Amino acid sequence: MTLQKHIKKTIVLYVIKREIFYEDDLGPYVFADILDFKCLQEVVVTYRIDWLVHFSALLSAIGEQNVPLAIRVNIEGLHNVMELSKQYGLRLFVPSTIGAFGPDSPRNPTPNITIQRPRTIYGVSKVRCLRFPGVISSDTQPGGGTTDYAVQIFHDAIAGNEFECYLEPDTRLPMMYIDDCLRSLWEMLTTPEELLKRRTYNVTAMSFTPKELVEEVKKHVPTLTVSYEPDSRQNIGMHFYLSLRKI
Ligand SMILES: NC(=O)c1ccc[n+]([C@@H]2O[C@H](COP(=O)([O-])OP(=O)(O)OC[C@H]3O[C@@H](n4cnc5c(N)ncnc54)[C@H](O)[C@@H]3O)[C@@H](O)[C@H]2O)c1
């Protein structure tokens, strides 16, 4: 992980399920439900935590399937880590998303501070902090986000499966490679407070459509077969079509 290259201290990964397996020397894994405040306090005290990078969330498509749970995990969970950070003087990072914008947000480019009005509970819970586009990583399986097709295609290509795309071929969405994502996270965390103009920035890298990605992947795996079966994520993705400024 890019972060590990920079951090000399122990990283404690708090998880509710251990569905990802990094190298064991990365640091201890601790079971912690983001909704269990006492448990979070114990983790902070036991491991003498001073920075908290809060990734737990239900992503856009999964959140729409279970809105009450998304409200709890994404909003109550966020309030828990904010309260925890206040109590223990932690430096807190919470990633946001292009899903925090809605159909009324200006495009090309979308300013850092602008009208948002997101249409999903995921977007509502992510109005603040660094807004990342879809993140492309081989570390984890797709987690129920609208941009996850851009991760799934690589798994399907390598496994020899047909790639079923849930978006229309010309849906252009902003994306970013995981190393660039972690670099921006690191730069945000280590920038002296007096140099930050605000707490919320848009992060940008590239944008492409499913059709363009398929063409690129086929150059490496010509046998890849593709079908397009747009589902409810197409409606979410339409509002993600934004061009973000570089920070
Ligand atoms: N993947 C992307 O393209 C992308 C883009 C922008 C922002 N982000 C943000 O990055 C973060 C991580 O996204 P991801 O793609 O790794 O998603 P993911 O679904 O893979 O990971 C979310 C994690 O939250 C955990 N979780 C769920 N409920 C929990 C609970 N009650 N207590 C503790 N943990 C719980 C899940 O077990 C899972 O490991 C999210 O906050 C997301 O908003 C992701």
Summary keywords:
L-threonine 3-dehydrogenase, mitochondrial; 247 residues; alpha/beta; single chain; 11 strands; NAD(P)_epim/dehydratase; two-stranded parallel ribbon; three-stranded mixed β-sheet; Rossmann fold; 36% helix; 9 helices; globular; L-threonine 3-dehydrogenase activity; NAD(P)-bd_dom_sf; binds nicotinamide-adenine-dinucleotide
What secondary-structure arrangement, pairings included, does this model have?
Elements: H1 2-6, E1 13-15, E2 29-31, H2 37-46, E3 51-53, H3 60-65, H4 67-88, E4 91-93, E5 96-97, H5 121-124, E6 131-132, E7 134-136, H6 149-159, E8 163-165, E9 173-177, H7 178-190, E10 206-208, H8 210-220, E11 226-228, H9 232-238
Bound molecules: nicotinamide-adenine-dinucleotide.
The site of nicotinamide-adenine-dinucleotide has 22 residues, from β7.
Question: How does this model look, in words?
Answer:
One of its GO terms (molecular function) is L-threonine 3-dehydrogenase activity. InterPro entries: Epimerase_deHydtase, NAD(P)-bd_dom_sf, NAD(P)_epim/dehydratase. Residues 28-127 form the NAD-dependent epimerase/dehydratase domain. This is L-threonine 3-dehydrogenase, mitochondrial. 36% of the residues lie in helices and 13% in strands. It has 247 residues and is an alpha/beta fold. The protein has a single domain (2-238), classed as NAD(P)-binding Rossmann-like Domain (Rossmann fold, 3-Layer(aba) Sandwich). The chain has a three-stranded mixed β-sheet. A two-stranded parallel sheet has the order 1-2. Strand 5, helix 5 and strand 6 (131-132) form a beta-alpha-beta unit. Helix 2 runs parallel beside helix 4. It is globular. The two termini are 22 Å apart. The site of nicotinamide-adenine-dinucleotide has 22 residues, from strand 7.
